[in-house]
Amino acid sequence: MNPDLEKNLTRLRKVSKDLKRGTLSELDKEWLADCLWKIYEGAKPELVLGIEAGRGQRRGAIDQNHQIDHAMHFVAGLIDKEMGAGLRLNEAIKMAAKFFIVKPATLTRYWHDPTKAHLRSVVRNQETYD
User: Fold this and answer.
1) How deeply is 130 buried, as exposed, middle or buried, from its count of CB atoms within 10 A (0-12, 13-18, 19+)?
2) Percent of the chain residues past pLDDT 90, beyond the cut
3) Residues 48 and 66 in one domain
4) In angstroms, rounded to a whole number, what is the distance separating the alpha carbons of residues 28 and 88?
5) Higher confidence at residue 30 or residue 116?
6) Are residues 26 and 71 in the same domain?
7) Residues of the domain holding 32
8) Mean pLDDT score, 58-87
9) Does position 37 have pLDDT exceeding 70, yes or no?
10) Which has more confidence, 124 or 14?
């Protein structure tokens, strides 16, 4: 069972982005090299990378929640007049649903949920959507 699944998935995503950009730190290079060596020797990749879902955990659910969070920020950007799009909410939700592969009904439900109001903010950092 892995209690730090989400933290480890976040680290793996960061290492992946840094590797693409050529900004991978020495510590991450050593960690990645060790992981790859252990996988080469036959260890389960999920165990080595610390991303094995434990009892009651699902990697897919965590990934989907991240997709929905990003889609919500994307919708907020599409309807924001300052950013230039100025779309209506329904149009923005349909566009974000296609881009992030999420059901439009899910985004609509999240948009109108008061506990998710913080996701309606515009994220002005492009790295969010990498």
Assistant:
1) exposed
2) 7
3) no
4) 43
5) 30
6) no
7) 5-57
8) 72
9) yes
10) 14
